[in-house]
Structures are given as C-alpha cells and as structure tokens.
Amino acid sequence: MKTTHCILALCLAGGFAVPAMAEDAVDPAIYEVAYEEDGRYFNADDIPTFNVAEDGTVDWLTFSGFRRYHAECHVCHGPDGEGSTYAPAVKNSAVSLGYDGFFEVVVNGRENGNSVMPHFGENKNVMCYLDDIYVYLKARGLDAVPRGRPAKKEAKSDVIREDEDACMG
Fold first, then answer.
1. More confident residue, 51 or 115
2. Torsion from C-alpha of 32, 167, 122, 60, nearest 10 degrees
3. Which segment of the chain is annotated as a signal peptide (predicted)?
C-alpha cells in the first residue's frame, strides 16, 4: 500500500480515461493512469486518479466518491459539484488545486471574505473517503463522468473494504 498521501493511515484512490478535450486544456499527466493497486488507480506522481472504461464503467473509488460527495458535500456545493447559491462549484477544485491543495482545504477549511469552508479533518465520513471524493470531483472537473450516479462500477476490492473498515472503526 502506498504511504504517500495516506489519510488517517488509510490510502484510497481512483483511475483514468477522459473524453475528447483540447490538448492544451489540461496536462494529461494529472489523470492518466500509471498503475493500479488493489482497485485504486494512480498517476505517475503517485496521486490518486480515476479510471473510466470505454463502456462507461467507473472505478470503485469514483463511484464511492459520487456517493460520499452527495452524502457530505452537495448540501452546500450543489449536485455533481456544480455549485449552488450557498457555495461555489467544486467540480474543478480537484483539478485546479491539485491533490495537496484539495486535501488542505477539506481538512483545515478556508475563509475567503464572507465565504467559509468549514474544516472536515475530524469527520470520518469525509476523511475515510477523501480520496474517493477527490477522484470523483477530478473526473467531473475533466468531464470524464457526466452528472448523475454512474451507471456501472468496478467491484470494491477486499483491500479497499478492509481499509474502509479500519478507518471507520
């Protein structure tokens, strides 16, 4: 198990496959899968990423990220990361902030004038699934997955299940 970017002694992740985009719009290195480990996908920099098969099947963490985002984040940030009158769109945050920046904001929160993002560093429902949420929002920000619940998903690996159980206690 990778120790880089571990959350609460738990590493989660995501995968790859982006539909046609302008070549210069986003460096493909941030989403291209370099390797897979126990159902988790990583880019060449060991950063979690998403994987979408040609038939639209998403990796487990992207699917889980959809569920976890809608359980914890959509109340403020709107469905599918599109934003609301209460809080900004975040579907591009995983792309623009990068993994470390995204992690920092979610764990510690942030104030920007009258806008306040609360910290979630002690919320296991977020922290145990932060990589899931990250790869889901990265996939949304790069238009690799459409709005709505993914129709097909990879199975959850035993390692992901064990890590989830250990994190949630």
1. 51
2. 30
3. 1-22
Please say whether the dihedral angle defined by the alpha carbons of residues 119, 123, 125 and 129, taken in this order, is positive or negative: positive
Q: How far apart are CA 132 and CA 77, in angstroms?
A: 17
Residues 25, 90: Cα–Cα separation, whole Å: 18
Q: Is there a contact between 79 and 136 (Cβ–Cβ < 8 Å)?
A: no
Structural domains of the chain, ranges and CATH numbers in brackets: 28-168 (1.10.760)
Give the 3-state secondary structure of residue 95: helix
Would you call 58 helix, strand, or coil by DSSP? strand
Instruction: Give the tens place of pLDDT for each residue, 31-81.
Output: 889 999 999 999 999 999 999 999 999 999 999 999 999 998 888 887 888
Q: How distant is the alpha carbon of residue 37 from its chain centre?
A: 16
Answer whether 50's CB lies under 8 Å from 62's CB.
yes
